[in-house]
Amino acid sequence: MTERGRGEVIVEWLVESLIRLCGISAIIFVFGIFFFVFREGAGVLFKGFDFREFFFSAEWYPTSQSHVRYGVLALMAGTASVTALAMAIAIPFGIGAAIFISEFCGPKLKETLKIVIELLAAIPSVVWGFIGLTVLNPLIIQLFHAPIGLNVLNGGIVLALMSVPIIVSIGEDALKAVPDSYREAAVALGVTRWQLVWRVVVPAAKNGLLAAVLLGVARGVGETMAVLMATGHAITMPSSLLDSVRTLTATIAAELGEAPVHSEHYQVLFVLGILLFVITFAINLTADLIIRGVRKP
Amino acid sequence: MMAPAHLFQATPLTRRKRCTERVAKYVFLTMSLLLVLPLLLIVGYLVYQAWPILSWEFLTTNPRRGMRAGGIWSPLLGTVYLVGISLLISAPIGVLAAVYLNEYAKDNWFTRLVNLAVVNLAGVPSIVHALFGLGAFVLFFGIGKSILAASLTLAIMTMPVIIASTKEALAAVPLAFREACWNVGATRWQTIQHIVLPNSISGILTGVILQVSRAAGETAPIMFTGAVFFKGIAEGDPFAYGLFDQCMALSMHLFTISTQVPDVPDALPFGTAVVLLGTVLLVNALAIILRVYLRARKKW
Hints:
The complex is a heterodimer. By secondary structure, chain A is mainly α. Chain A is built from 13 helices and two strands, in the order αααββαααααααααα. Chain A folds into two domains: about 5-40; about 75-295, MetI-like fold. In chain A, helix 8 (about 180-190) runs antiparallel to helix 9 (about 195-205). The model of chain A has no long low-confidence stretch (mean pLDDT about 85). Chain B has helices spanning about 10-50, 55-60, 75-105, 110-125, 125-140, 145-170, 175-185, 190-215, 220-225, 250-260, 265-295, and strands at about 65, 70. Chain B has a two-stranded antiparallel sheet with strand order 1-2. In chain B, helix 3 (about 75-105) packs across helix 6 (about 145-170), helix 3 (about 75-105) packs antiparallel against helix 8 and helix 3 crosses helix 10. The longest helix of chain B has about 40 residues, at about 10-50. Classes of the chains: A mainly alpha, B mainly alpha.
């Protein structure tokens, strides 16, 4: 066996260290994101921050002259209502399309549909927002005689179209992961395609489908530009689909530019960021655990 | 003796089953098509509205008269800078991270932790990335609002997806290739450098190209880290921006002229939207074509 040259060994060691460093970079970045967002928001959190008002008051008056109030209930209701409507549309369509692509269609059509879904996923969120503004806004005003077309309905439709591609692609993966022996066993019993899908494939893939839905929800909660442009700017508790709302994400995007750096308002916006980070982190973690659980057995 | 004809007719139960099946199939088909339809309608409508303004001049002149006239040169060049620089940062780190995860990492708790971090990094909302970029790059590291700070923010946002797609490309290279190389005495890195990377480079490229379109479309992360409402630059000079300058960006420009500036002629935002959407869809189409081509000529 020949000895390796000294130079060769050093190069190998250097490259390997570099690769290891890059390898753990993802962990560094996740902690970095939490650390720096927390660092900017921490000032206000440890100075008698009123958590009760923060979570249970719908009054968000960050720039009030007389009495500044930071209640995010209305903002959370905004996020929840838009996301809920989006999911009510996107889940049936997304899962339906996933079932069709995975179980019902031929290879050519399958390839085409997957490409279209991929392109749909590529449309930038600011373009979706623009569509909400210029296409859906006048449409909603006309159809529902609403005073303004920028509302929960508008944001929900836009967000549904944005989260459908995720639900379809993850959902299709989940359906594909169902072993063929399940299908063969069912076909041997003489079931139709529909019975096969409804009684065998979907129940077997239900965890993966759930994960697909969760990732869709996470996308909806975290989406910023589209909902900023499509939901109007009313910070109130929504009571109907035609009410304007403001989401958590949109509030940060709309107000950060005007809040003086390191002012209380600025810090509270970072606290909103921490809240968003924690919510999406929890959803993504759950989805990941579910997907992992599907792969394991 | 011939069997009576009715034996070959479907029983009511079978007929009902077939009927359900057909209904189910068409319901799902309709659902799928309803997803395809918006894409066509949206692209068609945007192009129709933007048609009168689309010209070479629109691409190569700065916005004028408070963004109510002129073209999109300044934001277009800004987007090119942001995308280029962010990928110069995220592609090498992302690819090496994937090499680590696929070629070096053992299957233990630490590797699982890294993988978990990648998944969660991919799920961080873009506005949180914006807060991070502002808190870390602009303020803490003192880079200030600049192309560099915005690109760094975008780089961290695009990295997890590059890691995921590269990992997939690396995993597609058969283990036998590596074993053959190790057996002739090559080191780990030599094997990666001469066997694994060349055999997966196209898959890696496809993943990186897809992130071009993602980085070009993002608005929130650059809003507070380097993109500005307006900045006039020398028309026709591709080096008009410096690394520490602030810049305009197509996505931000579309947001600005469609919501913040009153009395903008309709064609302007539509033109901007079409250029942005066209770029993104073209880049994606390129990646898809590359992928189809690769699959067709794959040797193993």
